[in-house]
Specification:
By secondary structure, the chain is α/β, with parallel strands linked by helices. The chain folds into two domains: about 140 residues, 2-Layer Sandwich (Major capsid protein gp5 fold); about 110 residues, hypothetical protein PF0899 fold, CATH 3.30.2320. The protein is about 25% helix and about 25% strand. It contains six helices and twelve strands. The strands form three sheets. Strands 1, 4, 9, 10 and 11 form a five-stranded mixed sheet that branches. Strands 5-12-8-6-7 form a five-stranded mixed sheet. The longest helix is centred in the middle third of the chain and has 20 residues. The chain is globular, with a radius of gyration of 24 Å.
Amino acid sequence: MQIPEDVKQTIRGEVIPVFRKELKGRQLMPTNGVDAATREFGYDKEVDDAMEEPAIIAPGGDIPADGPKARERILAAIYKIAKQYRVPREDFMSGDYVNRSLNRITQEIAEVENDLIFNGYADLGIYGLTDVPATTNAAGTTWDDHSDTGATPYNDVIDLAQSMYDTSNGRFGQMEEMTLVINDYTAKSLRLWYEAEVEKGGDRAIDLLNEDLDNIITTGHLPKDKAYLAHTGPEIAELVVAEEIQTEEFDYNKDNQTYFTNIFERILPLWYQYGDTEGQTYAVGELTNLN
């Protein structure tokens, strides 16, 4: 029994919207589409400290030259996220081929992508948001304690942005260009946290942060006791995509009368490295001790 082309298109049409709905990680890094035949993605890393300040030079003065920057070629493999979708022959005959199983598999692939972007995969050498070297500050207060202690989550984020600014010699640290990434539980705490003057018409911490930051991402892929502040953009981090999510042609197993296909994508989350510290980007800050 051959699967009609309209059935194949219906299944593919169901996979893509469900997948895109779950892609929180892609809010953190833009995609860079490469040829489907690409197996590795490479770039030249400046080994010397890339955060040196430009010189201030009087008219007619010489521009200091310390020779060409040492460079190191970074090559990273593009990996596949995949799972097989199986449908008994009877389900196809009855029209039950777009079901919870298809949606669940699609969501699972999206969540693996999200986890790669947020947490990386150490065994494969993939850096995520939580394991690139970061400027680290301890929070001045626990974010789930809504009492007035003088310290606030808003001040914690401002202080971290300032630390990032200092560490990167002013290249990073501008709040309006940064994204805050927090656990779903932490987001609820922020919604409940009122600043010290709330009774007098003050604002909630999350409202203040929404005004000053470019974006706030909430996800279950982060620990509750940490928050991350990151600059975004193609010069900082990209999701290299060789093949977007898709389904292959269906095959048929006569032994169990089941149709099956592979649902897969081929991607690489990539934080561009600078300087001589492994994984260093200068564009990520970490807040600890939130609860």
